[in-house]
Design goal:
2 domains; single chain; 308 residues
């Protein structure tokens, strides 16, 4: 599947975008239909919504660990910005897309989670390894579980295409900035796609999917990515102070309060992850640290070439 989606994005930007639009629409509609089906077929007295569940003892640390997995569902807002250079009128289109998508995701996720709570007691949800499948099995039998399996496959397909469509743009930009092999910035003469960068991301994705579980990949993704997102947001403060004359096509809403809240939240989450999940957090930090000397050597090498 990774190679198939990679070939589609290697062949055409428009094809990759069409696949993404179709799979995303199908996934959102399927989630909402699934929620409606559970409410229609389930027993109102059987699930957690029938009683006032006790959340005591509440664990802030446990909530923080759960937040890591939940954030994986919202990481599309980051990926969307990576293709800004190929979007018509990105100054208007991107803010609308990001804001509208966040609203859709919140509605879809609240709806489906309310449906789970409608169908299952809290204890069953806590013990479940596949809440959606268990909820549909409870209300519709084995056929319901098969429907959920199909939905998971659809969701995986859409998420995979999004990553393979947007990820190569990072490698392409690195190569353009002389921080990666220059050949990775090559554009296919016929298809007009970053074909070398796409091939690189496909190879790395196949390797990662072969040696790690989805849970491990999702956790590592968030732990590796969010410190850099935090630094990007912090750069808003730095740039406004050091370069007030820069043209700013997009004004940060709620500045400086909203960026500050985001930074506090990410810092707290990462500190909690270090306490609660030290092995995974330190492994992610080690991967980043291993890249620092490579970055410095590569940058020095690039500066020497420019000077020469």
């Amino acid at each position: 599947m990774i190679i198939l989606v990679g070939l589609a994005n290697y062949r055409s930007v428009r094809l990759g975008a069409a696949i993404q639009n179709a799979s995303t629409l199908a996934k959102v509609v399927a989630l909402l239909v699934l929620a409606v089906a559970i409410f229609a077929l389930g027993d109102a007295q059987a699930g957690a919504l029938a009683t006032a569940p006790s959340l005591s003892p509440w664990s802030p640390g446990g909530f923080g660990v759960a937040l890591i997995a939940a954030l994986f569902a919202y990481d599309g807002w980051i990926a969307a910005t990576l293709v800004a250079g190929e979007i018509r009128d990105p100054e208007r289109a991107l803010p609308r897309a990001l804001g509208g998508a966040a609203v859709v995701i919140v509605i879809a996720y609240l709806s489906i989670n309310m449906a789970y709570l409608y169908a299952l007691p809290l204890a069953d949800m806590a013990a479940s390894k596949a809440v959606a499948a268990d909820a549909m099995t409870r209300v519709a039998g084995a056929g319901g579980a098969a429907l959920v399996a199909a939905l998971v496959m659809l969701s995986t397909f859409g998420g995979l295409n999004a990553g393979i469509m947007t990820g190569p743009r990072v490698f392409y930009a690195m190569a353009e900035d002389r921080l990666f092999f220059r050949s990775v910035a090559a554009i296919h003469p016929r298809y007009q796609t970053p074909h070398v960068a796409t091939a690189v991301i496909v190879a790395l994705t196949v390797l990662n999917a072969s040696v790690r579980t989805f849970e491990q990949l999702a956790e590592a993704f968030v732990l590796l990515l969010y410190p850099f997102i935090a630094m990007t947001v912090a750069a808003v403060f730095v740039l406004r102070r050091r370069r007030p004359e820069l043209h700013r096509p997009y004004r940060t809403a709620g500045y400086p309060v909203i960026p500050a809240i985001f930074l506090i939240g990410v810092t707290t989450m990462m500190a909690n992850a270090l306490i609660k999940r030290p092995s995974a957090t330190l492994l992610s930090a080690g991967i980043v640290a291993a890249g620092l000397p490579v970055y410095l050597i590569w940058r020095r090498k690039g500066n020497r070439k420019e000077a020469g």
